[in-house]
Amino acid sequence: MNLPILKAIEIKKTYPGKPPVEALKGVSIEVNEGNVVALLGPNGAGKTTFVKIITGLLLPDGGDALVRGYSVTKQRHRALSQLVTVLEGDRNLRFRLTGLENAEFFVALSGRKFDKKRCMELADRFGLADAMNRQVRTYSKGMKQKLSVLIAFLTDTPLILLDEPTLGLDVEASNELIEVIKEGADAGHAILITTHEMHIAQKVSTHVAIIKEGKLVTYQRTEQLLELFRYREFLIKVRPNDIELEFPMLRKVESNDNFATFVLDTAEPSDVYQVIDMLRSKNAEILEIVRRQPDLEEVYLRIVKGGGVSNA
Predict the structure, then answer these.
(1) Is the pLDDT of residue 1 over 60?
(2) How many CA atoms lie within 13 A of 154 on its CB side?
(3) Which of these, 58, 72, 96, lies nearest to 5 by C-alpha position?
(4) If 0-12 CB within 10 Å is exposed, 13-18 middle and 19+ buried, where does residue 210 land?
(5) Which CATH class is domain 6-227?
(6) SS3 for 19?
(7) How confident is the model over 255-295, as pLDDT tens digits?
(8) Beta bridge pairs of residue 286
(9) CB–CB of 311/220 below 8 Å?
């Protein structure tokens, strides 16, 4: 059986203060070949601390992280040689070097062979081909972000960590990045991304991990997580638009000139039948009843505000 590319084991971290702040309270997670894991959570949840520990920038107070079996606390050099990180912003780059020189420099630093053809192919896809011989200090913020991501995929490490990778990118570049990430996963890389853009996370991830108040509250395959909530919500459209109903888990979400829309938060068909009977008793015309598919942003907000779901 293959080892997971990344295995975090009960990672704990407390920052001193009055009172001390428990940033991580025993977070465990495994990321395997071909996985794209979206690491999500509110500001201050512990995501940044987790990434810093994985990348060797911070030591945990308890637990450990293994990258291809190498401990980031006990075998730091070997562990870090198995990963590359794109930090939010432009902290990865050397501004007085050209884009091409940056790519050569960081690939050499990783101990791998520089593939200029592959480099220019990625540069072309990201719209950087004409800028690769310019100094990076002349680049816009978005161009620097594209170059950082390009370099990450050139290094060809087993684990790739992307911190807010679409920050500063336009829609076209973001879509191209999604395709590059998927191709990287298909090639066997394990990819961990942090992002506040839920539509990006939903498009690109195979798994979703949500951290809240230093704890991992859910870790699921993306489609399984969405499926858990799909069968818990029904959308009911009725006429007239001014009808009112009192029923547990039922709320009106829209009322326009033509109809009213209610959402029933339940997985029980008997609840739906009761609402139908109530509507009929008021002589309402039922226009539509459908099981609603919340997107990842809605699911994320429900979990963060209302508590986690069981891990897969």
Answers:
(1) no
(2) 30
(3) 72
(4) buried
(5) alpha beta
(6) coil
(7) 888 899 998 988 788 999 999 999 999 999 999 998 877 89
(8) 238
(9) yes
Tokens coding 179: 């395709």
Q: What's the rounded Cα separation, in Å, for the pair 77 and 99?
A: 26
* Residue 212: closest CA among 42, 5, 2: 42
Amino acid at site 216: L
* Beta carbons within 8 Å of 205's beta carbon, 6+ residues apart: 36, 37, 38, 193, 222
Q: State the distance between the two ends of the chain, measured CA to CA, in whole angstroms.
A: 19
Nearest of 49, 13, 4, 52 to residue 189 by alpha carbon: 4
Mean of the pLDDT values across residues 110-124?
93
Q: At 312, is the pLDDT very low, low, confident or very high (cuts 50, 70, 90)? A: very low
Tokens 């690769």 locate to: 132
Q: CA-to-CA distance for 129 and 257, rounded, in angstroms?
A: 53
CA distance to 110, 176, 185, per residue, from 69 (Å): 18, 32, 19
The domain ranges of the chain are 6-227, 231-292
DSSP state of 42: -
Average pLDDT over residues 219-231: 88
Torsion of CA 295, 87, 206, 169, to 10 degrees: 50
302 vs 144: CA distance, rounded Å: 35
Question: Considering only CA atoms, which of 270, 271, 263, 257 is closest in space to residue 291?
Answer: 263
Q: Which residue has the higher pLDDT, 170 or 49?
A: 49
Spatial separation of the C-alpha atoms in residues 246 and 164, rounded to whole Å: 43
> pTM of the predicted model, to two decimals?
0.82
> What top-level class would CATH report for the domain 231-292?
alpha beta
Whole-number percent of the chain with pLDDT over 70: 96
